[in-house]
Design brief:
phosphotransferase activity, for other substituted phosphate groups; alpha/beta; Rossmann fold; transmembrane helix; 11 strands; two-stranded antiparallel sheet; single chain; transferase
């Protein structure tokens, strides 16, 4: 379901080349530090697959149980041991891909939780008659398999890992000091891409340190997170944390992991056993916000998208072939319309639709909601748009992972840049994968309707996301196909 309308561009200005992608940082004066180049985005870091380590732990538990004589007779024991160990490891954040670990660092935690798991299943009646030596052997095999598997996974991730983009928040002088130290240690896994500082801290702007963009407002910080794919935020000093509570809460909602660094004095072991405590390039750090916002929707939503989009593509093949054949016979080659749109975290992708009209120029296609003389479309093309059948090729975008079935509608870079400056909350729509339909669309916000209302519904959908909500929206969208109102 489209979000296009027949209104002209919001400003009527000619698009510049820099607007082909989302330019998140507004132009600033020369004293504001070097701004991020417009039209370019930092490549998003390769994220570790969250399921790999739990799978390793599950296989290790299975190997440990196989040492026990008559293991196939104890399926309940195998299930309880596997789920128990995985649950304990998850609670201890041993699956957190944002923390760089070595197998020796986590060896006591892993073995301790395996011991707790075996102690729990050891009291079950099927295992009570077994000699202690058998249980100790099974425990040792389990530990060896788990540690070996995790060492292999950590080694592979270390070889493929690229430093994660990060923002440093704090007094400009101290933040630049920390950023410089991190840039000198690329192996720490973090690469600062910007400094969030006080706009009144003018003298510190000319101090020594890396020439990173200086972000003086909360809005610039949020935009930088979207543009650069930032998932790590480093807070220098406890006082800064108190002053920036609202901003840090917002960044955590985006999925950022927020750490507090002590850049001035050594910790002398204080807080060394707190959750998430440790060091980063020698700076004592403490976890403030785990940042689960972006990851919590990934697996279930993606499975639903893959299953439904694949099934719908197979069922819709005859309809797709008929539409393509008719369009080919009426208008000649080029039945598919390709257009750049902005997806999750500001990443561009190529959206597919059936071509129901031909723009006069690339400029018109990029800067008008719809082409001129739309009313002169053929009846068949009008039928495709009225029934939203022209959107069917987007099922392939969903299969590829460019989009989701449910989410905010994607828009062109030109309009994303304009609306992000005009409508509060528009940029926050990119926290979630864009979709074919969404909460705004089932409430009638299609075509020439309020952008502000769409922002409100889209952000409400993201803030209250659940898999059941996606299913309800898909069901209500199916009803709209029975009573089509046009795109």
């Amino acid at each position: 379901m489209t979000a296009e309308s027949t209104v002209p561009p919001p400003t009527g200005q000619q698009p510049r080349a820099a607007e082909r992608s989302v330019s998140v940082l507004a132009p600033r004066g020369p004293a504001a530090g070097r701004r991020l180049p417009a039209g370019r985005r930092e490549s998003r870091p390769r994220r570790a697959c969250w399921v790999t380590l739990p799978l390793v732990d599950g296989c290790a538990a299975l190997l440990g149980v196989l040492v026990v004589p008559g293991a196939p007779r104890y399926p309940l024991v195998i299930a309880l041991l596997t789920l128990g160990v995985i649950g304990l490891n998850r609670r201890a954040r041993l699956y957190d891909g944002s923390v760089v670990r070595g197998v020796l660092d986590e060896l006591p935690a892993v073995c301790g939780r395996i011991a707790a798991g075996w102690a729990g299943v050891g009291v079950l009646s099927p295992l009570r008659p077994l000699p202690p030596a058998v249980l100790v052997t099974a425990f040792a095999v389990h530990c060896a398999a788990a540690c070996s598997g995790r060492a292999a996974v950590h080694g592979r991730r270390a070889r493929r890992r690229r430093p994660d983009p990060a923002l440093v928040v704090g007094p400009v002088a101290a933040a630049r000091k920390v950023a410089a130290a991190l840039l000198r240690q690329p192996g720490c896994g973090v690469r600062p891409v910007g400094v969030v500082g006080d706009p009144l801290d003018v003298l510190a702007r000319s101090g020594e340190g890396p020439e990173l963009p200086l972000l003086t407002t909360d809005q610039e910080a949020r935009r930088a997170v979207i543009q650069n794919g930032v998932e790590t935020v480093l807070v220098v000093g406890a006082a800064t944390r108190v002053e920036k509570t609202a901003l840090l809460r917002d960044l955590a909602a985006y999925g950022c992991v927020v750490w507090e660094l002590d850049a001035e004095a050594p910790s002398y072991g204080l807080g060394g056993r707190r959750e998430g405590a440790g060091h980063l390039a020698g700076f004592p750090r403490r976890l403030l916000c785990p940042g689960r916002g972006r990851r919590r929707v990934g697996v279930g939503k993606r499975v639903l998208d893959a299953v439904l989009s694949g099934s719908l593509l197979l069922l819709a093949c005859p309809v797709l072939l008929v539409c393509a054949a008719v369009l080919r016979g009426m208008d000649g080659p080029g039945v598919l319309f390709r257009q750049e749109r902005i997806g999750k975290d500001g990443r561009p992708f190529t959206l597919l639709k059936f071509r129901t009209h031909r723009p006069a120029s690339a400029h018109e296609a990029a800067t008008r909601w719809s082409v001129a003389n739309e009313q002169e479309m053929s009846r068949f093309c009008q039928f495709l748009r009225r029934t939203s059948l022209d959107e069917l090729p987007q099922l392939w975008n969903v299969c590829r992972g460019d989009m989701s079935l449910v989410g905010p509608r994607p828009e062109r870079p030109y309009f994303v840049a304009k609306f992000s400056q005009t409508y509060p909350g528009y940029r926050e729509r990119h926290r979630m994968p864009t979709g074919i339909t969404g909460l705004a669309q089932i409430h009638g916000l299609r075509g020439d309707t309020s952008i502000e209302d769409r922002c409100r519904f889209d952000n409400a959908y993201i803030d209250n996301w659940s898999l059941w909500q996606d299913i309800c929206i898909l069901a209500r969208t199916a009803v709209l196909f029975v009573r089509p109102t046009g795109s």
